[in-house]
Amino acid sequence: MLLAVLSGFILAALAPWLTRSLQDKAGWVLALLPAGLFVYFLSWVPVVVAEGAQVVAYPWIPGLDISLTMLVDGLSLLFALLISGIGTFIIIYAGGYLHGHEYLPRFYAIMFSFMAAMLGVVLSNNLITLFVFWELTSITSYLLIGFHHEEKESRWYALQGLIVTVGGGLALLAGLIMLALAGGSFELHEILASEELRDYGFYAGMVILILLGTFTKSAQVPFHFWLPNAMAAPTPVSAFLHSATMVKAGVYLMARLNPGIGGTELWLYALGIFGALTMFTGSFMALRSTGLKAVLAYTTVMALGTLTMLIGIGTEQAIIAAMTFLLAHALYKAALFMLAGALDHETGTKDITRLGGLRQLMPITFITACVAALSLAGLPPLFGFIAKELMFEATLQAPLISTFTTVLAVVSAIMIVAMAAVFSLRPFLGPLKETPKKPHEAPLSMLIGPVVLAGLSLVFGLAGFLPATALVGPAVAAVHGAPLDFDLYLWHGINLPLMLSVLAVVAGLLLFWQWDRVLAVYRRMTFIDRFGPERGYEKLMDGLVWLAAWQTRLLQNGYMRNYLLTIVLTTVGLTGWTFFVHTGSSAPLGTIEFAVHEIVVAGLVVLGAIVASVTSSRLGAVATLGMVGFGIALLYVFFSAPDLGTTQIMVETLTVILLVLVLFRLPAFQNLSSAAARLRDAVVALSLGGLMTLLILAVNAVEVTDRISDQLVAWSYPEAHGRNIVNVILVDFRALDTLGEIFVVGLAAIGVYAMIRLRAEDRKK
Amino acid sequence: MSTAMGSLILRTAARFLLPLLLLFSVFVLLRGHDEPGGGFIAGLVGAVGFALYMFAFDAARTKTLLVIPPVVMVGVGLFAATASGILPVFVNLPFFTALWWPVELPGFGEVKFSTPLIFDIGVYLVVLGSVMKIVLALAEAEE
Amino acid sequence: MQTIMAFLIGALFAASIYMMLRRSIVKLVIGLILLSNAANLLIFTVSGLTRGLPPLIPEGAALPEGGWADPLPQALVLTAIVIGFGVLAFAVVLIHRAYEVINEDDLDKMRSTDT
Q: What's the Cα-to-Cα distance from C73 to each of A633, A642, A643, A740, rounded to whole Å?
């Protein structure tokens, strides 16, 4: 299981190389991994159906009893299957869509990282692990949206998506930590078993913080604007991330936490109302879009809103509807996106109004689009119909907000029917229109995914018991907290939901018929663009830039000594204040005892430091600095540190060499400051020096009884076989520290080398 | 600069001192676990030896004498140090657990070969390589 | 001696800050060297000074005889000295390079270069 999650990262590292060596076949070969994962996750289905949720633990730091745990239940399996299954087709599809693209290897690397991160999100049992994977999906998604990084627009939208989702991520982190405090554990299965989450003192704050994270990720109103903009990404990315997986991470988390923190009024109102509003906004904006991908993006917003609303309603009916809708949506949306990409790829335009009459030239695309769009519109005999009927039933039975949700659901459904018709009929029927490219059928790699996924929509619709027992059932059990007995089938008899469906279809087709007029109406509604939440985002970003510029002008004034003065005076002020508050104005002087040789060396060091500060000759300064350095080396030796003494002598020698090599190529000392400035600096410097002296005196007065190192000393010979304890600490006890330190030393050398190379290159020019 | 500073006495001294300092640095490195010394000090001693030689002669000659380019030394050193930490992972011990292989060498007594020793050698190479890279780069920029 | 060292370190800090506040770029380098020495001595001193008892275990024993100086700060300071040198080398070359590019020793006149 661990390998299943991490294999994506491993393949991501190899992907660039594999893509280059496999050439045209790369997509097909690379798709073997997600396909294999899909089969692997399928093999877990019988286990989960029979035995319920499984917690898989891997000891990580056994000494501290920290292990990496994963939660495999119906919900995580449903997501894992969608991610790996749709992922398989997307990888194949990308091979065709980005065929011969310069950055295809990079694309696969990021795509597999993303897939692995997403699997990590849905399979993590630990909140922190979950959060890390969550943020990884944001970062990889940023790289994918900005895939066409030469285009300014791509970069802007990528950054927008990142800032919105990561901003929400910050709130989520706080929320998850509160959740862990409330539940007394970071492990999901333990938290969800806790009965006291809803009585937690900060319950409302915790829920709001978590929802800020999930709402931004899952593009709920008012954060929905980033998702349609994320369509700047290549189509395979849109199909995978922004329809089937990443945006559903938020939905996943809400569903996951539902048994623990759901079921309260806050939960119902927050999710129910925002979800319904998102559902309406998504379909309302979809209706006015003319871009193939934009239409689908807004219908995704609609679907995410629907899912959030259903989870918020939280009745048994609603949970069943949510999981069914989730599966149905993933199947048709991925198919539709891939078809949109195929149309764009083969004709050269994404604008629906510029497409027409392609039914003869692209027959497979046409038929598949019809099937998938029927599922989107929620018509029988497709799986989408079952999902929509269940959704209507759930909204009708919703507590407290049933009128509100039902009205919005029906209005949305009408608009979605119209857009499903627009999407599947406009490009294909009527006279053939002139397009930038000469259209022909897309290659196999770009059709296999849509055909299989649309086919599944049909099969699941006709044989509802298949998903009901294997996929939706276990997921519902996980979200509801206990298994529910239910079945999925097309015909429920003539009832209210069916009537609502009929109403939606009829009204939707009317809208479709009059779509050109609808567009004209929309065009007059310019306020949407002028006052939408996206403007708010832009204002916020402008404000941030202004604030940064203002504080930079204030703080970063370019005078080195001003920075230093600020730092020193702040240190002296704060430390000094604390010091006097705690110890009073008297510092214990301690006993003054010394040996003659010690005091002589100490005196020379101080003398050297003073001379180095006031001398007007560079050579003098270097010589006295040497005196200071060697004096300190002697002090180390006097006080039982032979290793330090030797090191100091060597470094001192090298420092002199360094100064000789460089310093004498710089100008001679000059007195640039006025006498007043020198006096001020002397006062500041002495105040810090005085403070340090006082601090050391105060520390000296503290009697230290047990030292950390006593244990190290005791272990040194018996355990680490070394008699020089300092060296044993360096290379054994604290080897990881030392490793970091030698990396710093190596980096400094490379830095020096780079700067000198830079100079040599400048000279050549 | 090399000609201005490289007096005859300095050259003669450098020629004698370098092998002595190098020998000393290896000695300090190997005994470092038991007596004062270790990778840091040994690396610095070696670097001082080479730096002295560079002052007496020139950077190019010092480079040939070093045989291995300093940057490679840094790389090998970092690799050795990291590898000594990863090695125990392969025998299912936590990262950076020390492993010991005491070897009985005829006529030399027991030698404690261990991952900390590999680590210390890594430190030695990084310090020597880094300092030499800095000093040589500066001296070459000069010329 | 702890008391005397406290004054010695104070003097080193004062000298280093004074030098770093000068406008001449070369004096900044000297200030840096003094600062790193002062910081190392600070860590070394506050852990307590011990005469003539280096943290070495004699052959055949399991512990150093008759007490020992704290080895942990020594280990910390040892790497700090070497890193201090690396950072110093970097700073010196950086300053040298800055001087070469703008041909100016006065830090005050360097302020318009980083915008």
A: 15, 13, 12, 17
Candidate from B123, B127, B138 with C-beta closest to A662: B138
CA distance C75 to chain B (A): 11
Strands B109-114 and B100-105, by their bridges, are: antiparallel
Q: What pLDDT is stored for residue B73 in this prediction?
A: 93
- Residue C31 maps to which CATH number? 1.10.287
Strand (E) or helix (H) holding A161 = helix A152-183
Give the one of A640, A655, A672 whose C-beta lies nearest to C50's C-beta.
A640
Chain C CB within 8 Å of residue B35 CB: yes
Are C13 and A755 a contacting pair at CB < 8 A?
A: no
- Give per-residue pLDDT as tens, B35-71: 888 899 999 999 999 998 888 888 888 888 888 899 8
Residue C8 lies in a domain: yes
Which stretch of DSSP H or E encloses residue A11?
A: helix A2-22
**Per-residue pLDDT tens for A39-77?**
999 999 888 888 888 888 887 776 666 678 889 999 999
Is A742 close to B81, i.e. CB distance below 8 A?
yes
Which domain, by its residues, includes C9?
Answer: 2-49+70-114
**Gap from B118 CA to chain C (nearest CA, Å):** 18
Average pLDDT over residues A684-701: 90
Please indicate, yes or no, if residue C62 is contained in any of the structural domains: no
Question: Rounded CA gap, A720 and A525, in Å?
Answer: 77
Q: Are the Cβ atoms of C93 and B131 closer than 8 angstroms?
A: no
CB contact at 8 A, A298 and A376: no
Q: Hey, are the CB atoms on A742 and B77 less than 8 Å from each other?
A: yes
**Structure confidence at residue A103 (pLDDT):** 84
Q: pLDDT at residue A216 above 90?
A: yes
Minimal Cβ distance to B35: which of C56, C79, C86: C56
Q: Does A632 contact C41 at a Cβ distance shorter than 8 Å?
A: yes
Domain count within chain C: 1
DSSP E strands: which ranges in A494-588?
Answer: none
* Cβ-based contacts under 8 A for chains A and C: 283
Give the torsion sign (CA, A756, A761, A763, B1): positive
Name which of A655, A707, A714 is nearest C33 (Cβ-Cβ).
A655
Distance from C-alpha of A192 to C-alpha of A185, rounded to nearest angstrom? 10
Q: Give the pLDDT confidence score for residue A63 in this predicted structure.
A: 67
Asked if residue C11 belongs to a domain, the reply is yes
Q: Which of A258, A161, A246, A168 is nearest to A209 (CA)?
A: A168
Q: Is C52 on the interface with B (CB under 8 A)?
A: no
pLDDT reading at B108 higher than 70 = no
pLDDT tens readout for residues A553-596: 877 777 778 888 889 999 999 998 988 888 776 667 777 778 88
Q: How confident is the model at residue A706 (pLDDT cuts 50, 70, 90)?
A: confident
CB atoms within 10 A of CB A411: 16
Going from N- to C-terminal start, the domains of chain A cover 152-539
**Predicted complex ipTM:** 0.94
Q: What is the torsion angle, in degrees rounded to the nearest 10, for the CA atoms of residue A30, residue A35, residue A37 and residue A43? A: -160
Given CB atoms, is A749 within the 8 Å cutoff of chain B? yes
User: Where residue C112 falls among pLDDT bands split at 50, 70, 90?
Assistant: low
Identify the band that residue C115 occupies on the pLDDT scale cut at 50, 70 and 90.
Answer: very low
| Over residues A726-738, mean pLDDT | 90
Q: Look-up: residue for tokens 């101080």? A: A606
Q: What is the nearest CA distance from B10 to chain C, expressed in angstroms?
A: 25
CA dihedral sign of residues A479, A482, A487, A490: negative
CA atoms within 13 A on the CB side of A21: 7
Helix, strand or coil for residue C55? coil
Q: Hey, are the CB atoms on B40 and C56 less than 8 Å from each other?
A: no
Query: Which residues contact residue A144 at a Cβ distance below 8 angstroms, ignoring those fewer than 6 apart?
Result: A107, A110, A111, A114, A233, A234, A237, A241
